[in-house]
Amino acid sequence: MNSESEKIMRVIEDNEYRRTASRQAIVDVLVESEGHITADNLAEKVRKQAPRVGRMTVYRTLDLLCELGVVRPIYQGTGAAHYILMDKGSHHHLICNRCHDVIEFDECVADAVIEQVSKQFDFHISSHLLELHGLCENCHD
Question: Which domains does the chain have, with CATH numbers?
């Protein structure tokens, strides 16, 4: 188990949920996939490593991880949600409306907006997900 998996398992325990072998297997595969994976693909990969873990357990664990703020679903126009790790507190994507390519970037261009919104609504923002939709360089004319 790597340190990222351990951090996530601690979040589960700190919120008074049990550390189970199934949850551990799911978290390990999620971290190995670098957090960009559909629920069905995650279930498939988990079944290869831990055949006794059922698809519904994967879905319930993803729901729990979303509730705890560890992962977030993103919708890239392909129908199925992709789950991303929120390990850095923020996540940024450019999503092409035509070919559905996703470009991930680390530079936070929203700092000023986040600060303004935080002050305006007296709201402590702990994480954010920024998705910008448009056309990539291969799709725009």
Answer: 3-84 (1.10.10.10), 88-134 (3.30.1490.190)
